[in-house]
């Protein structure tokens, strides 16, 4: 019997906890391979590599995030296909809604075990482009990338709780995405919010 490439070996992961790690080049190869496995199992499905591991050289938790954008009617079938591949529903303190699920798995590559997060985002979701746009911003803008890395270090120094880290990081991402300009990042306004 052929071994499933997507596993659930959370305790075997190479990178654990909120602690930030140097970028691991193997993560990009993992994302490419997992996207291919998904496309083979569910033809026509495109899994985009998003998150920190999709930005060369960016520090992070080395969790490989993928986003599948789906018609809302296809979200249940896409989710079931991912579960058959070996993914599992997110088991965190704040579970993701069935209509916008985030599934977890692990993948072995070149001596490492990477945690996978596969986000199935309905095409009608108002934030459908957020992760892709943010990845693209960080890839093209070195000022935004440095600012994001510095703030991630600050957040990680303040909490070891992954949910608190994620919430704080989400606020940071919103600040960096609006407006998408390095000039604002260099001279942030401390007296106003928006």
Distance between the termini: 55 Å
**Largest sheet report:** 5 strands, mixed
Run of helices and strands: HEEHEEEHHHH
Choose one word for the global shape. globular
What percentage of amino acids are in beta strands?
A: 15-25%
Q: What is the number of E strands?
A: 5
Structural class: alpha+beta
Q: Summarize model confidence as the mean pLDDT.
A: 84
User: Looking across the biggest beta sheet, what order are the strands in?
Assistant: 1-2-5-4-3
> Spans with pLDDT under 50 lasting ≥5 residues?
180-194
Rg (CA only): 17 Å
Please estimate the helix content.
25-40%
Helix tally equals 6
Ordered list of secondary-structure elements with their pairings:
Blueprint (H helix, E strand, L loop, with lengths): L25 H16 L5 E4 L13 E7 L4 H11 L2 E2 L12 E8 L2 E11 L7 H11 L1 H17 L3 H16 L4 H5 L8
Parallel strand pairs: 2-5
Antiparallel strand pairs: 1-2, 3-4, 4-5
Descriptive notes:
- By secondary structure, this protein is of the alpha+beta class.
- It has six helices and five strands, in the order H-E-E-H-E-E-E-H-H-H-H.
- The chain has a five-stranded mixed β-sheet, with helices on both faces.
Could you name the key traits of this structure?
alpha+beta; 16% strand; globular; 6 helices; disordered C terminus; 194 residues
């Amino acid at each position: 019997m052929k071994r499933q490439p997507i596993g659930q070996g959370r305790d075997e992961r190479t990178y654990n906890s909120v602690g930030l790690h140097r970028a691991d080049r193997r993560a990009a190869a993992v994302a490419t391979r997992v996207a291919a496995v998904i496309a083979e199992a569910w033809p026509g499905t495109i899994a985009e590599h998003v998150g920190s591991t999709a930005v060369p050289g960016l520090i992070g938790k080395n969790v490989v995030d993928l986003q599948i954008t789906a018609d809302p009617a296809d979200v249940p079938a896409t989710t079931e296909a991912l579960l058959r591949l070996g993914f599992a529903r997110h088991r965190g303190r704040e579970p993701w809604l069935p209509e916008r699920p985030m599934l977890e798995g692990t993948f072995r590559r070149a001596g490492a075990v990477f945690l996978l997060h596969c986000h199935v985002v309905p095409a009608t979701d108002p934030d459908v482009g957020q992760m892709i746009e943010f990845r693209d911003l960080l890839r093209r803008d070195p000022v935004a990338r440095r600012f994001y890395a510095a703030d991630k270090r600050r957040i990680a120094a303040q909490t070891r709780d992954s949910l608190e880290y994620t919430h704080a990081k989400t606020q940071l991402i919103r600040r960096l995405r609006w407006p998408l300009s390095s000039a604002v990042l260099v001279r942030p306004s401390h007296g106003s919010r928006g």
